[in-house]
Structure formats: structure tokens, C-alpha cells
Amino acid sequence: MELFLLIFSGAAVGFAIGLTGVGGGSLMTPILLLFNYPVAIAIGTDLLYAGITKASGMVFHHRHGHVDWHTTALLAAGSIPVSLLINFFVIDASMADNQNFTVFLTSFLGVMLILTATVMIFNRYIQHRVSSEDSLIKEHPAFQLLRRYRSWLVLSLGVVLGVCVTLSSVGAGAFGAAILFMLFPSWPAKHVVGTDIAHAVPLTLVAGMGYMFNGLVDYQLLLALVVGSLPGIYLGTRLGAVLPENLLRTVLIVALLGLGIYFSLSLGH
Q1: Domain boundary assignment for the chain
Q2: Contacts by 130-137, CB closer than 8 A, 24 or more apart
Q3: CB 194 within 8 A of CB 232
């Protein structure tokens, strides 16, 4: 029965990903915690799940020219080394039974869920402002300053994402895309999404392999999630044009806020 529920959970999260582009790490890890999986195993398994399920999206966006590989490389130059350092010095096989690490990782996950929900709330506003005032933004002194130091800002974003994703499996989706929208206001949305996904794939795989080498990945669970998510992603992508995306995004935001507050409370336990 639990296996069926896990496959169904994978399908539901895959459907949310296909419909809105959001929901991978943000929903899957909390769901696994509600199934009483140890937090380190939930994060490690979800990281590999994210890398596998997003790989096809990366190929799709690359074939359609939606990926800026220079920016992807800059993000990876910041995120991958940080993820490797965290895997080497922080991630350990004993984390599955270490109560202090469990409390820390759970609380960190809660904070990232709240942050992701907040970003989702303001993301549409940011996109609207950028698209409607593109010419004004380019002439603003702040934009000139941003363009001068943009490479360093992208590298710094990679470092932040490396920490957040490796320790919580959350951040490579809505959070990373929202910052890219602000750093590249003239980019079409599809280029931001494509570049964000192209960076998320190697980051989640590298981070996930660190957990895997420490025995913090449940392979039967991973298989069940992937089996469920593939048809879910396909169905969500196909129905995206006819279902009310705004309603689902609202439900996702409420769910992320609720789960974020719930897991953040572990900080006090």
C-alpha cells in the first residue's frame, strides 16, 4: 500500500512540475518526511530524483535554444564546488540517525520552503514589471551597475544555490529562476527557465551522489518516485493549456507555506 502511495505521490509531484514548472524538491522532500523517511535519506533520494526528472527538460530546452550555457557554466562554477565541499565535510552516513543534524536539516528545509513560496508570490509581479518596463530598466543606473558586475552576481547566486540545494534539495526551481529574472531582465521567460533547469541537473546529481556515497539514498523509493513522476509530468505538460494554472500555483504556495512553517518549528525541538 505504501509503495502505491509513493508512486501516486511521484505522479502528483510530476503533474505539478509539468503544469507549473515548480514542485520537484519543494514538494517531494516534505512528502517523504510525512511518510516518516529520515530527513537525510529524503533529501538524498529527492536530489537524485530531481536530477533524473529534470534531465529531459534540459535536453528539450537545449534543442530549442533556450539555454544560455555561459550563464549555466557560471552558476555551476559557484554551486558545484560548494556542493562538493558540503558533501565532503558535512554529509555523513551517521546523519540518518543524528538527531542534531535531523533538526538542522528539517529546519533549513522549512526556511527554504517559506522562501520558495514567497518567491512564487512575487515572481509574476517581477516578470510583469520587467516585461512592461524593459526599456526603462535598461536606462536605469542600477541596471548599468548590475550589468557591470553581473558575472560575479551570477557566480554568487551559484554559491547560494549550491548551499541551499545540497542541504535541503530546495532552491533550484522557483528561487533560482526568480533571481535570474532580476539579473537578466531582457531575457524571455523560456530562456530563464531553460538556463535554470540546465544548471539544476548537474547540481542535483552532484549533490545527490554525495548522499548516495554515504548510503543516504533509498533506491527502491527512488524507482517508485521516477515511475510515478514520468506519466505525471507528461500529463501535466499536455493539460497545461487547459487547466487553471493560477489556481494550482495558489494551492502550491499555500501548501509550501504550510509545510515550511510546520518543518521550521522543529528548530525549537
Answers
A1: 2-268
A2: 130/181, 130/182, 130/185, 130/186, 134/185, 134/186, 137/185, 137/186
A3: no
Phi, psi of 168 (to 5 degrees): -140, -15
Alpha helices in the chain (DSSP H): 2-20, 24-34, 39-63, 69-89, 99-132, 134-139, 141-148, 150-168, 174-183, 189-213, 219-239, 245-264
Predicted pLDDT of residue 18:
67
User: Count of CB atoms within 10 A of residue 54's CB?
Assistant: 25
* Amino acid in the structure at residue 127: Q
Distance CA 107, CA 137 (A): 37
Summarize pLDDT for 238-263 with one digit per residue, the tens. Answer: 665 566 667 767 777 888 888 888 88
One-letter identity of residue 48: L
pLDDT in tens, 45-89: 999 998 888 887 788 888 888 899 999 999 999 999 999 999 999
